[in-house]
């Protein structure tokens, strides 16, 4: 694909995300009121989602807790607990059983599901109805697939999986920021500023970045090289990095003939991270340690708030020294790294809004990668258009029934 195709696709995609956000804004005041009431009452806020939606709702909880000390429970549960309980009991009841144990302390439950039909989400919503706990439900389409007894359904107005997820993270981030106190800016002001930032993304530069990154990722998948997705500074970018790694590992190659799941390495587990920070107070130690195992031609995505930050610079240096192909997404600092990383600088927005922009870029990359791998597997030198890429929704192949048996 030519760079122009990547540019036009990026422009079309971010425009659609902006339109979805605008469709959701008229009901934004209701969402802000739900969040504000829950934070003012001092009860607990819980959140649930599957796949990328899990990272989306946990980002909102992190935002509420970090900025206002709101009591939240961001453990939908640990991966170990989730796997253990899912094998002992039905997975469809796992979220509801986790919620039931302390539902008397809960003032609000946030759920996200593009389909709006995930059985475990519906079970949690049903339990909330029984106990009159308000639900803020973010769903795709027109929202008619879910009806909480209290609260609201906040629908994206589109069934496109990735555009819905990007709109969900954006509006939830903006609503949470607005709900944090009486002195905050009103939602329309925040939304217009964010939409202006979204429109300000330089799609010409982004097209060139996407082309380089897509070719690198597709080559890594074909040749069984590792792909790293790292955010050494943590925070909301680390959660969107988790979502990014999930899309690369799970969605980008799914259903493409002859393509195996890629080897994706993301940020350290809680066990690793706590050990690193306890034994080595230097925050850069962890990312240097991870990249010490990288090999030539591995692909490294570094998500950073500031490209000039010491941890980021050390990560870029480690990736370059290992002979990898590093790609840097950042907001602050120089637009081009002197260490040889392919960089793309995003507009200046706060840390949580930045995560929403990075999530859109990650989705763009996963769709272009899927398209390139599909063309490869067909043996045809097809000329893909921006319209073809806009139709590359990753969702239709997500069902496990469509996944080849291992």
Automatic annotation (TrEMBL):
InterPro entries: SIS_dom, SIS_dom_sf, SIS_GmhA/DiaA_subfam. One of its GO terms (biological process) is carbohydrate derivative metabolic process. Residues 31-186 form the SIS domain. GO terms for molecular function: carbohydrate derivative binding. SUPFAM superfamilies: SIS domain (SSF53697). This is SIS domain-containing protein.
């Amino acid at each position: 694909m030519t760079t122009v195709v990547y540019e036009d696709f990026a422009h079309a995609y971010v425009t659609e995300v902006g339109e979805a956000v605008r469709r959701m804004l008229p009901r934004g005041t209701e969402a802000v009121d739900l969040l504000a009431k829950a934070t003012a009452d001092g009860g607990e806020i819980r959140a649930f989602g599957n796949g990328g939606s899990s990272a989306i709702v946990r980002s909102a909880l992190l935002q509420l807790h970090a900025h206002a000390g709101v009591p939240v429970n961001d453990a939908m549960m640990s991966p170990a607990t989730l796997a253990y309980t899912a094998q002992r009991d039905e997975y469809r009841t796992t979220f509801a059983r986790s919620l039931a144990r302390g539902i008397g302390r809960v003032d609000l439950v946030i759920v996200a599901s593009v389909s709006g039909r995930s059985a475990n989400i519906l079970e949690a919503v049903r339990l909330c109805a029984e106990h009159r706990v308000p639900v803020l439900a973010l769903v795709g389409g027109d929202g008619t697939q879910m009806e909480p007894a209290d609260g609201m359904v906040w629908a994206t107005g589109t069934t496109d999986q990735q555009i819905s997820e990007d709109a969900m993270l954006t509006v939830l981030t903006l609503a949470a920021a607005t709900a944090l106190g009486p002195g905050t800016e009103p939602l329309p002001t925040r939304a217009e500023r964010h939409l202006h930032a979204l429109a300000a993304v330089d799609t010409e530069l982004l097209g060139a970045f996407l082309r380089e990154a897509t070719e690198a990722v597709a080559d890594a998948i074909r040749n069984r090289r590792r792909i790293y997705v790292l955010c050494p500074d943590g925070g909301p970018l680390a959660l969107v990095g988790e979502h990014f790694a999930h899309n690369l590992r799970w969605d980008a190659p799914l259903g493409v003939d002859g393509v195996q799941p890629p080897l994706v390495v993301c940020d350290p587990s809680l066990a690793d991270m706590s050990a690193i920070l306890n034994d080595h107070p230097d925050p850069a130690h962890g990312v240097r340690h991870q990249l010490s195992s990288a090999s030539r031609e591995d692909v490294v995505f570094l998500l950073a708030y500031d490209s000039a930050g010491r941890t980021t610079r050390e990560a870029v240096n480690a990736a370059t020294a290992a002979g990898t192909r590093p790609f840097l997404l950042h907001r602050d600092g120089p637009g081009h790294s002197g260490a040889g990383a392919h960089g793309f600088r995003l507009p200046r927005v706060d840390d949580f809004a930045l995560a929403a922009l990075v999530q859109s870029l990650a989705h763009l990359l996963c769709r272009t990668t899927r398209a390139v791998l599909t063309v490869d597997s067909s043996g045809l030198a097809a000329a893909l258009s921006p319209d073809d890429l806009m139709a590359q929704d990753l969702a239709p192949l997500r069902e496990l029934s469509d996944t080849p048996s291992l």
